[in-house]
Design a protein that fits this description.
By secondary structure, this protein is α+β, with helices and mostly antiparallel strands. The protein has helices at residues 2-18, 52-60; strands spanning 22-34, 37-49, 64-67.
Length: 68
């Protein structure tokens, strides 16, 4: 019985931690014009998700994401 309980707890922890979100640092360049002069700003943000599809959508939107 003790072994069964241990296996259950280990399985539960494995499932819990495998579904946790992972955090990334995503950066992108914003370009805009001020008085006829092009300006660029690099914008960086922390982005946490458990979905690889959401991360892909972020990268498709022009962000470069790397693990934080």
């Amino acid at each position: 019985m003790k072994q069964l309980t241990s296996i259950f707890i280990i399985t539960l922890l494995t499932v819990f931690f495998s579904s946790c979100s992972k955090c990334y640092e995503c950066t992108t360049v914003h370009e805009y014009e001020v008085n006829g002069v092009m300006q660029t700003d690099t914008v960086s943000e922390d982005y946490c998700t458990a979905s690889s599809q959401e991360l892909q959508e972020k990268e498709d939107a022009g962000y470069d994401c790397s693990p934080a």
